[in-house]
């Protein structure tokens, strides 16, 4: 694995809309670890060596002649999904659903955990001076939270339940609060992760114990809040947690499924149907980078506490092992040998 991680992606001079980036900070996602361990996620199968990494920020070192909004030296955050064609999904603004989209570190497309990487200039976003490279890399998971909260309709006064206090659960918490949620309760098996959720602004935390039934947990959520949440954002993909999400959400509310688990899952569908609880999927994100940058630059959202471990690129194997073991929240790899700062 380490050999692929040290790959250098060379610039293609034939495409005038590309930029060449010197990578700086790349976060490790659970999907990166899953590809490393198992070689596949669902129908996406690694059939040849693949560079991983899709949570990234770097510095522009070369621009194509048709690129007008970026200059050499600009610090940028990279949106890893780039549409390959102007299909119906592109036209209606939901390009994340395009079946032919290029996406970093999704077979057969290489990612950006390397020294140098080329990318579509239109999907590189200049970072304000007060936003660090690491914050730029964290825009990718933050975007999942933005897209989830948009899909859920989180707004001023919303009461929100978030199942799971991993990185995605925590960014969903940050975004929900920034979008005006009045109360957010977060559930998890780990007291340490719930402690982090509290530090990041969760109003209530509920420790899940193995053996708790979904209906019991839903009742506990109601008892803590004094009412059922308008919105539940499910970030674990675990069957029992999805069941809890449905039981806990108030009638007429919304359950958003962010976590990916078993392809076939048993859920109380009739319970949701007769109470008009909408169940909505989330697949990555679209049109989120400008909002995320504004959130970070204005200080409305602080993602810095999420980075708990840092490693130079040469120690990629140790970094991946740290993530695999579930230690900390977000592990960041530093790709620029001459600049190891955040």
From TrEMBL:
The keyword Lyase does not apply. It comes from Amphiprion percula. One of its GO terms (molecular function) is zinc ion binding. GO terms for biological process: sorbitol catabolic process. Gene3D superfamilies: Medium-chain alcohol dehydrogenases, catalytic domain (3.90.180.10), NAD(P)-binding Rossmann-like Domain (3.40.50.720). Keywords: Cell projection, Cilium, Flagellum, Membrane, Metal-binding, NAD, Oxidoreductase, Transmembrane, Transmembrane helix, Zinc. This is Sorbitol dehydrogenase. InterPro entries: ADH-like_C (IPR013149), ADH-like_N (IPR013154), ADH_Zn_CS (IPR002328), ER (IPR020843), GroES-like_sf (IPR011032), NAD(P)-bd_dom_sf (IPR036291), SDH-like (IPR045306). The chain crosses the membrane at residues 156-176. It is found in: Cell projection, Cilium, Flagellum. The lineage of its organism: Eukaryota, Metazoa, Chordata, Craniata, Vertebrata. Belongs to the zinc-containing alcohol dehydrogenase family. It comes from the Eukaryota. Residues 2-333 form the Enoyl reductase (ER) domain. GO terms for cellular component: motile cilium. PROSITE patterns: ADH_ZINC. Its cofactor is Zn(2+).
